[in-house]
Amino acid sequence: MIIIMKPGAARENIDTVVKAISSKGLQAHLSQGDQVTIVGVVGDKTRLMHDNLELIPGVDKILSVTETYKLANKKFHPQDSTILVGDTPIGPGRLTMMAGPCAIENEDMMMKSAAAVKAAGASFLRGGAYKPRTSPYAFQGLEEEGLRYIRRAADAAGLKVICEITSQRALDTAVHYVDMMQIGARNMQNFELLKEAGRSRIPVLLKRGLNATIDEWLNAAEYIISEGNPNVVLCERGIRTYEKATRNTLDLSAVPVIRQKSHLPVIVDPSHATGVREYVAPLARAAVAAGADGLMIEVHPCPSCALSDGPQSLTFEQFEALCRELKPYAALAGRTF
Amino acid sequence: MIIIMKPGAARENIDTVVKAISSKGLQAHLSQGDQVTIVGVVGDKTRLMHDNLELIPGVDKILSVTETYKLANKKFHPQDSTILVGDTPIGPGRLTMMAGPCAIENEDMMMKSAAAVKAAGASFLRGGAYKPRTSPYAFQGLEEEGLRYIRRAADAAGLKVICEITSQRALDTAVHYVDMMQIGARNMQNFELLKEAGRSRIPVLLKRGLNATIDEWLNAAEYIISEGNPNVVLCERGIRTYEKATRNTLDLSAVPVIRQKSHLPVIVDPSHATGVREYVAPLARAAVAAGADGLMIEVHPCPSCALSDGPQSLTFEQFEALCRELKPYAALAGRTF
Amino acid sequence: MIIIMKPGAARENIDTVVKAISSKGLQAHLSQGDQVTIVGVVGDKTRLMHDNLELIPGVDKILSVTETYKLANKKFHPQDSTILVGDTPIGPGRLTMMAGPCAIENEDMMMKSAAAVKAAGASFLRGGAYKPRTSPYAFQGLEEEGLRYIRRAADAAGLKVICEITSQRALDTAVHYVDMMQIGARNMQNFELLKEAGRSRIPVLLKRGLNATIDEWLNAAEYIISEGNPNVVLCERGIRTYEKATRNTLDLSAVPVIRQKSHLPVIVDPSHATGVREYVAPLARAAVAAGADGLMIEVHPCPSCALSDGPQSLTFEQFEALCRELKPYAALAGRTF
Amino acid sequence: MIIIMKPGAARENIDTVVKAISSKGLQAHLSQGDQVTIVGVVGDKTRLMHDNLELIPGVDKILSVTETYKLANKKFHPQDSTILVGDTPIGPGRLTMMAGPCAIENEDMMMKSAAAVKAAGASFLRGGAYKPRTSPYAFQGLEEEGLRYIRRAADAAGLKVICEITSQRALDTAVHYVDMMQIGARNMQNFELLKEAGRSRIPVLLKRGLNATIDEWLNAAEYIISEGNPNVVLCERGIRTYEKATRNTLDLSAVPVIRQKSHLPVIVDPSHATGVREYVAPLARAAVAAGADGLMIEVHPCPSCALSDGPQSLTFEQFEALCRELKPYAALAGRTF
Q: Which among B141, B137, B135 has a CA at the least distance from the CA of B167?
């Protein structure tokens, strides 16, 4: 932590800062410049968390030097992690494909979807049973009935199940059906839910919030891990910007940034990021080339009949073609799927 | 709803669209232009919600004409609402002051804060018992113990209590202590929590999400109202932009926009929006001048000792001075407090 | 300037940094922490501008402590400036009203506009002769012909003229007609134009770029002042965010932030910021309450006939009513107009 | 164009709208809904540009159906264009590599850079002679002297020259030295400069503005083409968002979006987008996989000695390695370089 004093801060103000630091058993190092004095803090900074040094007269600003997340931080865990979902690994050397419809609509469409995405190369079946929707009048999901459908469909095809959970109540039910739970963009800072997910021990796919910085995202992962669940995979799915040609702006830079800052695997969802079917394939290829550990793709037996997000869903044929197209890109990136 | 066809869309594609519309008992009106055909839909559009007309070949885009929120919509409720919290009204003609510390730290500071903010003119005591914090290692709040402190302090001073709730569990406890519950920015699209708040019947202060459009914010209010709780007050508290001179960017335009689109009262929180004590007073005055129904201000007996958000808190003296300064602005705006 | 080393940076890397600093005749102060070493630089940092310390192995990041703008900086010019445009002052104690149509369309509408805005209380007549337009097919302005119209109209009414200039060529012509030149949002970082404006000595109204930070905005002012023209007034006119209910998001926090960081006057343009006539009056009041030194308002004799930006223009009657409404707000803010 | 009336708009208001439309020789088509009446306009809408229908009482909003750019629009030019810079084509089937230092510092470094980037596979040498810099005190470029260096270096190595021009004056000089001129992000809406570039007939690389929508970017290209210069190549270089882990947010979705909306080639600049050397290679690969027609990469003989943007520059060795790594990705994308 560094405290920057205002130009011409009085000697007594600097002393007050130094005293506040040393009163916590920490050391203060002074750097006296021409215009500005800087105070560096040495020691366990968490002891200072409750002090508002910024309000001491003469203090200009306070800069944090180290990240607040530790368990998700590559600095303290330099080797990239592989997360096991049952016997299916996510991480280095593999390209994990998660595919399926946005919402679970009935058993039949899940059975068909499972068979189709498995044949194309996916290892996870996705499908929403609890749907966070902007309007209370939009379709909200089949809940437990939906979970039963996706479980049966995945078992029949030999796939793992991933479902979004949106509340403690949904989590309590979902644990009986899913292999991996997804925490969606809108709940990325629903800290109560993160803690519950941390206590549950089921692997978690943590989507980035629409307005979350990468730093906040890794802190959200820290919530889960610090409750005892180290099995976290991150998912970039677009952030909100002024540009409206796509639903959100896919931030592919997040892939190399996460690779540098964290040991956790990171996958990419180009379907939700763009909201446009034609853009899914080029951005899926780009994600693989950027180093993503996997992809989440929306696939629907009949996109024009879908209960939600049809315009961005691929048909079975399109998904099969995409997987074929992705294989050589995955190979170049040193990944198999 | 309007469907815009691509230039040169085939006759049969247009027919498919028209058939899809009429199959739901709705009427389609065609507007054949030089380059583009437009199809207007007449009737109850919710019947079309499950159709993905956008995927019919030849369709370029679909435009929504009417808002999805109804109960929060001024079009269907032209008179501005007054929300009663007990016997304290929020709405036209009044400037409601909510003030207090960011976090409840102990009983003593709540007693002092209550007395001070009451004396200055506030009618609500605020204070966080459940704190949503970016890092799991930051102070998370005193929970029920904190609720007891704020209740006692408010009762002693003759104030109403407003507290943020962050989960179903917190809500179940809080109903026994608070007069109004706050749903914070990070939970604005925690739809499960919105529904619970809707079923609880306690008045709700709904803060705008950091990345929420005004339309999404009003849809969030619709979640609460449509569950049976019409007592919703909105609170603008800054949105996330690229600018970093303030913690967030206070969007004061939201006040006249909400006034035009909704009948619900709207208040402003300049403390969280800016994160800087010096900017609170000018923006508080601006909010009143823009037409806000109230203000939420952070006040702390000793900002430099605060457990959270000290740098943006006013001292008792500063709050008292602010209230004095605001009175003539409130009078100009036709409001008393 | 502060150099933060990576955790566990090698002793030799730290030495390299220290040598790079001392080789420029500057002093390096070391702060050795548990995990991290910090190097403070003391002396004239501009000597280091050409060194890329960041690339020395072991360096994590470099933080700037002082602003790069000096002449626009309140730290070195603590008293708020009053800018004289002829004999008309802009600054403390006054609320300067600039009003008129978006584009100059003909002489008659300028004469009428001048008379009306003068009567209501404006001291500047605005009107665009060179219009920056998104599409090359939109109306681009009357150029010199327009400048003649606005000059005559302003002279007849006893007003100062302010016009946007968009190029060196426009500037060369405009100097013969205008009292103050405006550099628009899209040209805020057209550095060649800023330098020309700096050499011209005519007072400059510098609008904030749509995506400019306040720091970049003050650096743009520094370009003008450092070329010899200290007569710069800033104008907040909305920034681009994800929100689409208003054309841009008016960042009123910029008013107190500029007040704190700079001695230059700052005015507000609620017309361009919102793009909606109904929102102009509430935000004009808010700007005055926030401490703005003036307002720029679009007024048109017949908004529904305007060649550009009609929807946000006030009629003469609306402008007159707005000025009447603003007077007591100005009085509260200690300003006359 | 579609005019949407407010719910319950009076019959006479609708009539006024219809009359305004037919008075211009256009046709109005009415769609009378339950709540809302919609008026479609058929015919050449540019005749309506000067009317502000929005201000007619009862009008809610006006929606544009067709893009304002025509010459840059794929709808009217369905085949992807190849732009010739001398005898060097940019477009389908090729991956054009542009590389070199951010700023031209001296002749020697340009000669070395030219030889190195040519050997690695680049066909263009880049280097800034006119540098747009946030602070007036930062290095501003060698101007004509720099142009001489880059021309000689490129000729010696057999490369084309691309340089940013920032003013009419710079353009007048640069035409004698460069093969392609770059209009930078900060000048994307410097419309006077766009028109000059359009009259010059030298191929133009048009970078996307930091806050420009794709629609605005294509309108900027339209300015150049409509002045007679069809040789425009677009360059995505990151947009400004709230995220600060990278300097800007590279919007790779822009590649497929441009591919769909325009026939112009589009290249990607991952160096300026990220500002971090380690992220350049993964995003360069991603750009190729997304379908980009080329890349612009910063390369410097000694990044730690660079006068500007050193931290994002690759060394010659790193650039050579990147080109080698990119070849199989280019091959997969059907491109040679």
A: B141
pLDDT digits (tens, 9 = 90+) for A277-307: 999 999 999 999 999 999 999 999 988 777 7
Tell me how far apart the alpha carbons of residues C148 and D326 are, in angstroms, rounded to a whole number: 59
Contacting residues for C23 by C-beta, under 8 A, at least 6 apart? none
3-state secondary structure of A239: strand
Give the phi and the psi of residue D22 in degrees, each rounded to 5: -70, -25
Taking CA atoms, D118 is separated from C102, D126, D148, in Å, by 51, 12, 18
CA-based torsion, A239, A244, A247, A253: positive or negative:
negative
- For A117-141, letters b (16+ CB in 10 Å) and e give bbebbbbbbbbbbbbbbbbbbbbbb
3-state DSSP call for residue D94? strand
Question: Residue D19: CB partners within 8 Å, gap ≥ 6?
Answer: none
- Chain D residues close to B31, C-beta within 8 Å: 2, 29, 31, 40, 42
Strand partners, C128: C103
Tell me the whole-structure pTM to 2 decimals.
Answer: 0.91
CA dist A223 and A200 (Å) reads 13
Query: What is d(CA A7, CA D239) in angstroms, rounded to the nearest whole number?
Result: 34
Rg (CA), chain B: 23
Contacts of A65 (CB under 8 A, 6+ apart): A1, A2, C4, C33, C36, C38
Q: Do B34 and D41 touch (CB under 8 A)?
A: no
Q: What per-residue confidence (pLDDT) applies to C44? A: 65
Of D74, D42, D26, D43, the residue nearest D261 (C-alpha): D74
Residue-level pLDDT at A59: 83
**List of chain D residues whose C-beta atoms are within 8 Å of the C-beta of residue C193:** 167
Residue A11 bridge partners (DSSP): none
More reliable by pLDDT, D75 or C238: C238
CA distance D132 to chain C (A): 7
Six-digit token string for C300 = 């048109």
**B211 in C contact zone (CB under 8 Å):** yes
CA C223 – CA C60 distance, rounded (Å): 31
Name residue, tokens 């510390």.
Answer: B101
| Closest residue on chain C to D222 (Cα) | C136
- Sequence-ordered list of residues with C-beta below 8 angstroms from that of A172, at least 6 positions apart, any chain: none
Instruction: Show Cβ contacts of residue C43 under 8 Å, excluding neighbours closer than 6 positions.
Output: A33, A34, C24, C25, C26, C27
The model's pLDDT over D169-199, given as tens digits with 9 standing for 90+, comes to 999 999 999 999 999 999 999 999 999 999 9
- Whether C273 contacts chain B with CB within 8 A: yes
Could you give the 3-state DSSP secondary structure of residue C103?
strand
pLDDT digits (tens, 9 = 90+) for D133-154: 888 888 889 999 999 999 999 9
| B241, B252, B291: residue with CB nearest C252 | B252
With a CB cutoff of 8 Å and minimum separation 6, the contacts of A15 are: none
Nearest to A100 by CA among A304, A326, A300, A283: A300
Which residue from B243, B252, B290 is facing C239, i.e. has the nearest CB?
A: B243
Listed in order, strand segments (DSSP E) in D160-226 are 160-164, 180-183, 204-207
B positions 293-322 inside 8 Å of A (CB): 303-307, 310-311
CA separation (Å) from D315 to C58, D95, D100?
18, 21, 10
| Interfacial B residues in 53-82 facing A (CB < 8 Å) | 53-56, 68-69
Report the residue of D59, D186, D242, D314 to disrupt the C interface, i.e. the one with the largest count of C CBs within 10 Å: D186
Q: A49 falls in which pLDDT band (50, 70, 90)?
A: low
| Cβ atoms C265, C234 nearer than 8 A | yes
